[in-house]
Design goal:
The protein is an all-alpha fold. The protein contains 19 helices and no strands.
Length: about 475
């Protein structure tokens, strides 16, 4: 890809961030609309879980395929296809006549979404080649999540009250179309120097693993352990098959050599834990504010501002901190704040007081604001640039898988605790196990942030990058000899 001027690079960053904005805004706004969806479409708790998880599940399953495909056939081409499919899926969601079709259309949305974020991150990585400049760009990327968290609940609440939940999907249409036109005009095409072959077996195994695991977790409270046991077994078999099959391919869907890098492995697990906490936090908060406190969608959105605003403010600070001091300070701050927030709810029933509720939201927003930049920067900075799409896709997959599992696990625990009772009567006590799960997620971020960001961890990243680079040279030599 040719070297771009500073102004052009900033424009490319803005276009890429717009894709993250519509995807994140869609999810945060839809969370506020869940009670409205529940009433209009007569959805159960598991139905609400599927409304969120159908999207994140498909996204997680296809992100690595999208990343490697973009490296192979062209990042701009795949990015534009993603914008088209996501925008069309949003239009279909706004027209869904029932819950079942809404879930199907959310899956179509996710097919497009899978081509946006990892590919956009790959474009950013190849556009901003200087390490410090790239860290600042990733900080700006993280700030967009804060913007979506701040605007999502407010926009969602306003649209639900004034028009209805369907209007949430209309917001994506002008943004998606504008981003499509700007990409065509200003984003240069780029691809990896050598094309990677598709891995259909690996892709099927990933879908089987994520899909069967999520189904087993969500449906367990309603169907019982015996009914979901075959799906849990299928998930275990798919995982075992992936671990056996992928190392034996020359060009696997998931390059397990990446995980020899301690920072990369740590960032992957941290992403799962942090976004599981986010998914569970938003799910429980939305249902509590509207179904227990009886707030309107708009007022529920306002109550989420103490969480959203710190995320917006802390994300660029985290990017600068990562650029100046490395990932450790940001990860330690994130883990400590997220753990403290979850403990307030789990041990002190923070929901029951406005002061502690505000403090719990504030702490979670600070923690989540600091966690995203070190995850992304660690995932892509130690890898060869030719593999940027795949590395970014693994990081994005970890985020989506985490959010999927967070909604699935916390929703299942909440549904089991509430049972046949009303939310208003039993929610606070039923949510306690869920909050302890989120506490464990925060501790995971804190501990792994400390363990995987030291000198020995960085040395392992350098060794892993050298091995991957050497293997690529050998593979290229074989192809040249043929």
């Amino acid at each position: 890809m040719p070297e771009l001027s500073h102004r052009r690079r900033l424009l490319v960053l803005a276009i890429c961030c717009s894709s993250l904005l519509i995807v994140s805004l869609d999810n945060t706004a839809l969370n506020v609309a869940l009670p409205s969806l529940q009433r209009e479409l007569h959805a159960t708790t598991s139905g609400l879980q599927w409304t969120i998880d159908a999207y994140t599940l498909v996204l997680a399953s296809l992100l690595m395929l999208a990343g490697s495909t973009a490296d192979r056939i062209g990042r701009r081409k795949v990015f534009m296809t993603g914008l088209t499919v996501f925008t069309a899926g949003s239009l279909l969601c706004s027209l869904a006549p029932n819950l079942e079709l809404l879930i199907v259309f959310r899956m179509i949305q996710a097919v497009g979404g899978s081509m946006l974020n990892p590919v956009a991150m790959s474009i950013i990585t190849n556009t901003f080649t200087d390490a410090r400049e790239r860290a600042r760009a990733i900080g700006a990327w993280g700030a967009v999540i804060g913007i979506s968290m701040a605007a999502g609940p407010l926009v969602g609440g306003l649209l639900v009250e004034s028009v209805g939940w369907r209007a949430i999907f209309w917001v994506n249409l002008p943004v998606g179309l504008t981003a499509l036109l700007l990409t065509l005009r200003f984003v240069p095409e780029s691809r990896a120097p050598r094309a990677r072959r598709p891995d259909p077996v690996g892709q099927v195994l990933v879908i089987a693993l994520f899909g069967s695991l999520t189904y087993a977790i969500i449906e367990a409270p309603d169907s019982g352990p015996a009914s979901v046991l075959p799906f849990a077994a299928l998930a275990a078999l798919a995982l075992a098959a992936l671990l056996w099959y992928e190392p034996r391919r020359e060009e696997p869907l998931i390059d397990l050599r990446f995980f020899r890098s301690v920072p990369f492995s740590g960032a992957t697990v941290i992403a799962v834990a942090a976004f599981a906490a986010l998914g569970g936090f938003l799910f429980m908060s939305t249902l509590y504010l509207q179904n227990v406190r009886g707030l309107s969608a708009m007022h529920a959105g306002l109550w989420m501002l103490p969480m959203a605003v710190p995320t917006f403010l802390c994300a660029p600070l985290s990017g600068r901190l990562v650029a100046a001091r490395g990932p450790r300070p940001s990860l330690l701050l994130a883990g400590a704040a997220m753990t403290a927030s979850a403990v307030l709810f789990a041990g002190f029933e923070a929901e029951t007081s406005n002061v502690t509720l505000f403090l719990g939201y504030l702490l979670f927003g600070i923690g989540f604001g600091f966690v995203n930049a070190p995850i992304t920067n660690t995932a892509v900075s130690g890898m060869p640039r030719s593999q940027a799409g795949v590395a970014a896709a693994v990081a994005s997959t970890s985020r989506q898988l985490g959010q999927t599992l967070g909604v699935a696990v916390v929703g299942a625990v909440l549904a089991a605790g509430v049972g046949a009772s009303s939310y208003r009567d039993t929610f606070v006590s039923a949510a306690v196990p869920g909050w302890w799960i989120l506490t464990g997620c925060g501790i995971c971020v804190l501990v792994l942030g400390a363990l995987t960001s030291g000198r020995w961890a960085r040395a392992s990243a350098e060794r892993a990058a050298e091995r991957i680079q050497s293997a690529q040279v050998r593979e290229a030599s074989k192809v040249g000899a043929q």
